[in-house]
Fold this sequence. Notes:
Elements: H1 7-15, H2 25-32, E1 37-39, E2 53-59, H3 60-70, E3 74-80, H4 94-101, E4 105-108, H5 115-124, E5 129-132, H6 133-137, H7 151-168, H8 173-187, H9 189-202, E6 206-209, H10 215-221, E7 224-225, H11 229-237, H12 243-254, E8 261-264, H13 270-282, E9 286-289, H14 300-319
Parallel strand pairs: 1-3, 2-3, 2-4, 4-5, 6-7, 6-8, 8-9
Helix pairs in contact: 2-8, 3-7, 7-8, 9-14, 12-13
Amino acid sequence: MPPVPPPSAVRAARRSRSAPALVTAVSLVLLCGCATSLPAGGEGALAHTAGVVRVVAAEDFWGSIAAQIGGAHARVVSIIANPETDPHAYEPTAADARTLADAQVAVLNGAGYDPWMQHLLAADGGTRTVLDVGDLVGVAPGGNPHLWYDPGFVARYADALTVDLQRADPADRAYFAARRAAYGRVGLAGYHAESARIRADFAGTPVGASESIVVYLCRALGLDLVTPPSFLRAISEGTDVSAADTATIDRQIARRAIAVYLENTQNVTPDVQAQVTAARATGIPVVPVTETLQPAGASFQAWQTSQLDALDTALEHTRG
Length: 320
């Protein structure tokens, strides 16, 4: 199989056909501000500062967005901020509880993804605004909890978070509104542009995946995810995989019935490893995706756009 060209070369060629609008320096300054999302480990109580909303997010992807919208008028702590941490199995610490006790706004993914956060909130009993993204978008426990891979859900979260920040700090309503607008227009510009390019060029392309983390993403991009849904769910939930599903996926790979294989590198089982090995041996590109920010400290949009770039490059390579 010929080597895959570097992502930069493919993206440069494609973007010459549809370059996004340039970002103004003023908008960049607005977005950068003082937005920071800090890990919770060892932090303890949040500092109380007038005009600064104290926000605790269960996961760093939601925390990154909160920090960028909150800017200088929010201090955001993300409990899950280590790429090696499994959000499903996380065991909260006493420091996490102390941090949450001081929060004015608490953010959790919900949809059964982070029940430990619900337990922390119930044990604390404090008065605060709780933003449960699953409740917000109507995905209950038992549904697909990987909500941050749906651009529509991300937008609804950003809007709801802005309202919660404004309620906590009414004096800075205009500030939060301006930063929300800039985040959508500037911060997420590359993310939306890359998504639109993939959808325009590759809608309907059959792809395979290791688990349900990419279901929302494939739907948003118009890709045809042909892996049996029961397999995706089994790997995501850690239940047994059926022999029929394994046989179906083996055939798809052997016959090159999928253009790429999307692998959640934070949830690799023996079944998934076997499929990844077979895909690579057959010449099918394997594109990694993750459940937390990679690298640690990256912004939500940088992380997501990097993954989209890798997917774009792999799909483009299959045309050759």
